[in-house]
């Protein structure tokens, strides 16, 4: 991911929320999701020139369709 984000792409979530802790994946083991012990492995990336147009980016952690949750990004075009 370091190579990706240093080659003209911006991590939309981290750009808007530099210190916020949210995850997009949890193992099914040991109740990890209920304890919010996960990883942020599903990224929303935009080209660097769109970073200033980002309005929101986040994770829909209340969606329980799989071990991943949906990620969303809103861009003002």
In short:
The chain has 77 residues and is α+β, with helices and mostly antiparallel strands. The chain has helices at 2-5, 12-16, and strands spanning 9-11, 45-47, 54-59, 71-75.
Structure explained in plain terms:
The chain is an alpha+beta fold and 77 residues long. It has one domain (2-75). Helices cover 12% and strands 22% of the residues. It has helices at 2-5, 12-16, and strands at residues 9-11, 45-47, 54-59, 71-75. A two-stranded antiparallel ribbon has the order 1-2. It has a two-stranded antiparallel ribbon with strand order 3-4.
- Give the proportion of residues in helices: 10-25%
Overall pLDDT level: 94
Structural class: alpha+beta
Strand content: 15-25%
Q: What count of helical segments does DSSP give?
A: 2
Total domain count: 1
Give the low-pLDDT segments. Answer: none
Report the end-to-end length measured between terminal Cα atoms.
Answer: 26 Å
Q: Total number of β-strand segments? A: 4
Main beta-sheet annotation: 2 strands, antiparallel
Q: What are the secondary-structure elements, in order, as H or E?
A: HEHEEE
Query: Gyration radius, to the nearest Å?
Result: 13 Å
